[in-house]
Structure formats: structure tokens, C-alpha cells
């Protein structure tokens, strides 16, 4: 297993506000979530390529720095663990003007690449995608959500050693990231699978970790279920002002 994940906080140079959408299409459930990309509370970052259908004509807004950006909801069909499929709705945001926004129309099939952040608010999970590129997808391109996850958080109580159908051992554990919201906290759990042999000896319940790996989004009882096929693992020593400790 490889090591060497940076222990520095995720830090990107801009701040944006955008609409965030849950898996429900009920507009009363949408809210505006301000995402500071220097925010130490953002502990799950995913570099993704997403293929789906635009759920509403793109609109434009001006951020606090008077820089215009466009946004639209992207609906992606996801397979459920029970064999039933459902839809995850992702809020897409990209620097752009009204002329560019006019090309992203309701019902268009597009492929979007960029950086996605997960934000837990109560029982709803929001997917905020800051796009680097938006392109037209062909009619033959199936809906998909693929990418690499960078995760920082704390390991849960159970670390399980299992064997696959070929009798090869692998490790399964869950970990959660913590975000301070107002006077409380929000917790997002991710299930990790390690197929690269046994975990390190220091890997124990309650340990803080940095993890990278292949992100997997499925549905469980109609709600998004997040897991990761782990590729890199490192112990993280948190500073006193970091909530993931």
C-alpha cells in the first residue's frame, strides 16, 4: 500500500456560493450552501467525471468577487444495491457568462469534469461540482459518476478482515468526516475497501486518517451510499483547531 498523502489542509483559492440539491427533485428542499474552498470543514474532495442530464436551464449569478458563474442541476442515474436504480442530483457550477449558460439547456446530455465536494445537512447529502469542462455527451453514453476521492477523517469502531470468492483477504472499515455547522456538527460516513493486503499496525478504531482511492456512489434505500476502493492510506495528526480529531 502506498503512503505519503499530504497532511496539509485542502486549500483552493476561491470562494463561491451555489445552489445545492439533494436526491429529491422537490424545489423546496434546495438551499444555498456557501462553500469556502479554504474551509477546513471540507474533508471529502473528489476529482470526477460525470455523465448525466441537465435538469433545468443553466442560470448565471455573480459571486462576492463580482465574478460571474453559471449553474445548473445535473441528474445522474445510479444503480441501487437492491438492484433498483434511482437518480442523484448534482449542483454544477462553472465560471462563465450568460452566452455560455444559454448553451446548457434542460434535457441536454452532458459530460462534466471537475472537483466535487460532499456536504451533509441532516439526512440530506449534497453534491457540489465545480466544473473545469462541460462537453456534450453522445446518446450512447450511459449515465455515470466516476473519480478519485481524497478523504480526511476518523476511523469507526469496526475494522473487518474478510475474504473474497477467490479466498483472497481484504479489509473493510468505515470512517467519518466532521464539519462544524453553526452550533453543531455534521458527520459524513464513507465505507472503505482495501484489497492491497493487510492494513498498517497503527490502523485502529478512532485513528485519524488521510485516504485516497476510487470513489463509488450507489443507492441504499433510495439514498446515496458512498464507498471508496482505497489506494493510499496515511495516518493524520490533526491540529487543535481541526474538527476531524
Layout of strands and helices, then pairs:
Blueprint lengths: L14 E6 L10 E6 L7 E11 L4 E4 L5 E12 L5 E11 L2 H4 L7 E13 L2 E13 L7 E20 L5 E13 L2 E11 L13 E13 L2 E13 L10
Parallel strand pairs: 6-8, 11-13
Antiparallel strand pairs: 1-2, 3-5, 3-7, 3-9, 4-5, 5-6, 7-8, 9-10, 9-12, 10-11, 12-13
Overview of this structure, please?
With 245 residues, the chain is mostly beta strands. 2% of the residues lie in helices and 60% in strands. The protein has one helix at residues 98-101, and strands at residues 15-20, 31-36, 44-54, 59-62, 68-79, 85-95, 109-121, 124-136, 144-163, 169-181, 184-194, 208-220, 223-235. Strands 3, 4, 5, 6, 7, 8, 9, 10, 11, 12 and 13 form an eleven-stranded mixed sheet that branches. The longest helix is centred in the middle third of the chain and has 4 residues, at 98-101. The chain is globular, with a radius of gyration of 18 Å. It starts with 14 loop residues before the first strand and ends in a 10-residue tail after the last strand. Residues 1-41 have low confidence and may be disordered.
Count of alpha and pi helical runs: 1
Helix-strand pattern: EEEEEEHEEEEEEE
Number of separate strands? 13
Q: What global shape is seen?
A: globular
Query: Distance between termini?
Result: 24 Å
Unreliable parts: 1-41
Helix content: under 10%
Amino acid at each position: 500500500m502506498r503512503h505519503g498523502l499530504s497532511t496539509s489542509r485542502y486549500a483552493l483559492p476561491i470562494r463561491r456560493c451555489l445552489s445545492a440539491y439533494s436526491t429529491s427533485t422537490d424545489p423546496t428542499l434546495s438551499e444555498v450552501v456557501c462553500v469556502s474552498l479554504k474551509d477546513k470543514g471540507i474533508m471529502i474532495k473528489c476529482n470526477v467525471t460525470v455523465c448525466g442530464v441537465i435538469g433545468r436551464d443553466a442560470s448565471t449569478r455573480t459571486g462576492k468577487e463580482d465574478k460571474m458563474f453559471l449553474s445548473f442541476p445535473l441528474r445522474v442515474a445510479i444503480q441501487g444495491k437492491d438492484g433498483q436504480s434511482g437518480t442523484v442530483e448534482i449542483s454544477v457550477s462553472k465560471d462563465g457568462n450568460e452566452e455560455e449558460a444559454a448553451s446548457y439547456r434542460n434535457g441536454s446530455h452532458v459530460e462534466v469534469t471537475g472537483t466535487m465536494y460532499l456536504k451533509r445537512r441532516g439526512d440530506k447529502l449534497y453534491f457540489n461540482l465545480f466544473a473545469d469542462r462541460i462537453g456534450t455527451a453522445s446518446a450512447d453514453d450511459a449515465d455515470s459518476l466516476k473519480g478519485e476521492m481524497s478523504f480526511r477523517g476518523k476511523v469507526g469502531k469496526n475494522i473487518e478482515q474478510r475474504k473474497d470468492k477467490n479466498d483472497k483477504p481484504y479489509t473493510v472499515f468505515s470512517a467519518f468526516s466532521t464539519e462544524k455547522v453553526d452550533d453543531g456538527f455534521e458527520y459524513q460516513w464513507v465505507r472503505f475497501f482495501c484489497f492491497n493486503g493487510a492494513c498498517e499496525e497503527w490502523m485502529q478504531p478512532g485513528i485519524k486518517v488521510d485516504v485516497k482511492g476510487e470513489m463509488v456512489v450507489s443507492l441504499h434505500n433510495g439514498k446515496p451510499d458512498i464507498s471508496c476502493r482505497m489506494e493510499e492510506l496515511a495516518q493524520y495528526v490533526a491540529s487543535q483547531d481541526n474538527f476531524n480529531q
